[in-house]
Amino acid sequence: MKNNLDETKPIFLQIKEQLEDSILSDSVKAGERVPSTNEFASYYQINPATAAKGINELVTEGILYKRRGVGMFVTEDAKEILIQKRKQTFYDHYIQPLKLEAGKLHISKDELLEMIQKGDEKDEN
After folding, report:
1. Could you tell me the pLDDT band of residue 49, with boundaries at 50, 70 and 90?
2. Which segments constitute the HTH gntR-type domain (predicted)?
3. Is the per-residue pLDDT at 2 higher than 70?
4. How far is residue 87 from each of residues 26, 34, 56, 92, 94, measured CA to CA in Å?
5. How far apart are CA 121 and CA 87, in angstroms?
6. End-to-end Cα distance, the chain
7. How far apart, in whole angstroms, are the C-alpha atoms of residue 11 and residue 87?
8. pTM of the shown model
């Protein structure tokens, strides 16, 4: 868990994103238990309902499931669900605006690909 929370974003979203990042980075794997709402609340000194809101969103999305009396666990499909969700978000927030701006500047698809590959060449040096 991160040591402190960011003031610019709702706390429940930060908790949700922390769990998502932990799953994507394999810090927490399918079938493993995640911290409880009370553990998050105690660690960050927040209301347990705030932590529960982030965790419950992950349950709704099929990322976590509850084992009564034991806790919340990562589903088998969690990582794939998150990858697909993040790819769509990446497309919506980066690729679509990039294509829109490229169109305004009359940059062809070939030119755009060339620009991207040019960036790759610089990274390799």
Report:
1. very high
2. 9-77
3. no
4. 18, 24, 22, 9, 10
5. 24
6. 35
7. 23
8. 0.81
Asked whether the beta carbons of 54 and 15 are under 8 A apart, the reply is: yes
d(Cα 65, Cα 59) in Å, to the nearest integer? 6
Contacts of residue 38, defined as CB under 8 A and 6 or more positions apart, other chains included, come to 48, 51
Burial 44-53, CB ≥16 within 10 A → b, else e: bebeeebbbb
d(CA 74, CA 58): 9
User: Tell me, what's the pLDDT at 7?
Assistant: 84
- In terms of Cα–Cα distance, which of 40, 105, 97, 36 is closest to 72? 36
At residue 110, the 3 state secondary structure works out as helix
Convert the pLDDT of each residue in 16-37 to its tens digit: 999 999 999 999 999 999 999 9
Q: Which amino acid is at 79?
A: K
CB count in 10 Å sphere of residue 99: 14
pLDDT tens readout for residues 99-109: 999 999 999 99
Answer whether 41's CB lies under 8 Å from 50's CB.
yes
